[in-house]
Amino acid sequence: KNSTKKTRRSTRVEHYSSMRLRLGTASNGGDSVYLLDETNGWVCLVDAARKKKWAHDPAALTSVVAFLGLDHQGRADARALIRGVPGLKIMEERLPLQAISLRDAALYVEHMAQATKGFVGIALRCGHAVQLLLGHVLGKKLRLPRALGPCAAPAYYVGNPRTIIPSGARARWPSYAGVLDYELEVALILGSDLEVDADETTCAKAVQDHGGFVLINDFSARDVQADEMTSVGFGFVKCKAFCTSMGSEVVTADELYRSDESGRLFGDGLACEVLVDGERWSSGRTSAQKFCSLSQYVEHCCRGEGLGAGEVLGMGTVPNCCGLELGRFLEPGCTVEVRCEELGSVTNVVAGAPGANFRDLGRAAGQPSRLATALKFLGMAFIAPVVVFMAL
Fold this sequence. Notes:
Layout (H helix, E strand, L loop, with lengths): L1 H13 L5 E6 L5 E6 L5 E3 H4 L15 H5 L3 H11 L18 E5 L3 H17 L3 H9 L18 E3 L5 E3 L3 E3 L7 E2 L1 E8 L9 H11 E8 L1 E2 H11 L11 E3 L3 E3 L12 H5 L1 E6 L2 E7 L8 H9 L8 E12 L12 E6 L3 E8 L18 H22 L1
Parallel strand pairs: 4-16, 6-12, 7-18
Antiparallel strand pairs: 1-2, 1-13, 2-3, 4-5, 8-11, 9-10, 9-16, 10-12, 10-13, 14-15, 14-17, 17-18
Helix pairs in contact: 6-11, 7-10
C-alpha cells in the first residue's frame, strides 16, 4: 500500500502543469519574480511572501534562474503563496534574466536543408562565386551549413549575451551589414548546474526538473555570414554577435518537455509564426524533425566544460521561420514580431540602415581584394599543373 501511494504521489508531481514566469518590480522597488495565476494575473512573489511564510531559497523570489532551481515542493509552495493575491494584467517588457552565456545550435533538419540552398544565393549575390568554385576545384568541402543527416555532435556557435535585448527594444542594424534577417527560435534556460561530461540521462533530468523555455529572435547579418563561412572559415562571429531579442515570459519544462521528447514542445509541437509590418511571412511547428534530441545537445555542450545555471541554449530556427528560407529579408524601420504558442511573442523595430560591404572592412590601401586573391589562386589551380606537366 505504501509503495502504491508513493508511486501515485510521484506521478502527480511528474505531471504538473507548466508555470509561467517573468521578472518585474516589487513594491519596494527591487526585482521580483512574477507568476501567472489561474485568473491570468501576474502576481509578485516578493510582495506575496510578506503575507505568507516562504521556507525556500530567498533568491527564488527575485531571480527567474533561482526559481527554476527550486524542487517540486518549492514550486508547489509558490503556487500556494500566490493563491488569492491580486495580480497585474499588464506588465512592462524586460529580460527575464542576465544570461551568463549564449549558445545557439542548428537542430532542425528541414531548416538546415532550406538554409543551405538559401546561402548559395546569398554567397553568389555577395560576390563569393569564385570562392565557392575554388572550393570545388580544390576538392575541399564547401563551407556551408550541414545538410541532411543525424549528427551525434550537433553544430552550435557561442553568441554574445551582452547584446540580448527585450521585446519592445529597437534592434540595431549593424554598421557593417547589408542583408538583415530574423530567426524564430525556442531557447532553453538552465536552472541548475551540470558537471563536466554529464551524461545524457543527467542532462535530460536537469532540463525536465529545472529547465525553462523562452522565445528568441536571433537577428542575423546574412551577407556577413556568407563572407565568414566562405572566406574566413572561423564560423559565426560578427554575423550573429550584434543582437538577439528575448521574450519576457519563461515557461517551466513540466508539461512542455519529457525526457523521451513526448511533451508538447516536441510531441504535437507548438505553432509558430513571424509577422513583418503586420504581414505574415513565416509559420512552422517546434515538432519538426531534429538532428538529435535536446538532451543530446545539452550533453554535447557539457563535454569538457560543463554548464551552469543561467546559461541559455538556443535550439535553432524552427523550419520556415527565417527569411533565408524564403528569399525575403528585413528593411530599415520594419517591425518584426515572432510568436510561439505557450511562449508568447517578441516584437522589435529595426533601427538604422545598411552599412559598408563587410568584405572591404579592415583591408589596407593597396591590398588585393578577396576577389583578386581568389582569382589568383584559381589561376594557379588551373595553370600551375599545366606548367609543371610541360616542364617534365
